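Spend some time on the protein that follows and explain the fold to me:
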Amino acid sequence: MRASLGRWCAFEREMTSTFAARHLVPALAIVFAMTAAGAPNRPPQAPTRDPAALGRVLQGTIDIHVHASPDNVPRSIDALDEAKLAKTRGMRAIVLKNHYEPTASLAFLARKEAPGLEVFGGIDLNLTVGGMNAAAVEHMTQMTGGWGRFVWMSTFDAENQVRYSKENRPFVSVSRDGQLLPETKAVIAVIARHGLVLATGHVSSAEGLMLLREGRQQGVTHMVVTHAMNAPILMDVPQMQEAARLGAFLEFAGSTMANATAATRVDRFADAIRKVGPQFCILSSDLGQDGNPVPPDGFADFLTAMRAKGFSQQEVDAMTKANPARLLGLP
């Protein structure tokens, strides 16, 4: 409905004739108003989708990268409705991500709204939680339910991200002069002690490999390179292959398939996955942005696009069911 109203507004601006202004515009407005009044209360974009078809694509899948409100920016859906929709679509699990707020407590509430769906949260080590803050990670593990599972190294406040974006503001560092900082190693120690997931965030590709080496040395058993090919990480294939050898999964985040870059993005992903091996890869949505498809539906679009690139159902299942289950410590 939001998209329809947007098209209506653009159409209305073009109706400059007296006839349109006096007759056509009011008539169409009434039609839109009647449609809105009669529409059931469903999450954004859900009315345009075939639930049965989406369920066939999403049955048993896990999305490790879901954004939802409440947040400091507009989102397409809130976390509780997202969980209910994911359950309706037949998904097994989701991971709620927020760049600036821990989501372990939100995961606890979402599980109550969608019993049977595995919902996890985490903490993103940006400035709002003190950066490389081992105490904040430790506290997350103590939240009711114990559903805080991911520890993302800094994303939007990462030194690599700030420099890549050519911004002049404070940032969070994980290393200096080619060596991980003591506070970074302290965070990794907490991850190892509690069996959490080390996710590399928006650090540089070289720093990501340093984190994985340290994680392996400290006994971390669950590691993933956050959307490895996306800016500002930009890992190349040899680096991704090294990450896999270190015991990490490589995340490929589809985003929306409805923009001009989608076809090229899927081509690049498909080529890299074949060179790294599907057994080391995880597909996710990284959706929830206002104006994009809600995460389950956009995730289904991405999986359909990957199947169209020649990946077998068994390979897609590995990247959306088996591998993310291993990452999260699920059976």
In short: DSSP finds 13 helices and ten strands in the chain. Residues 18-38 form the longest helix (21 residues). The chain has two domains: 2-38, 51-328. Residues 2-38 form one domain.
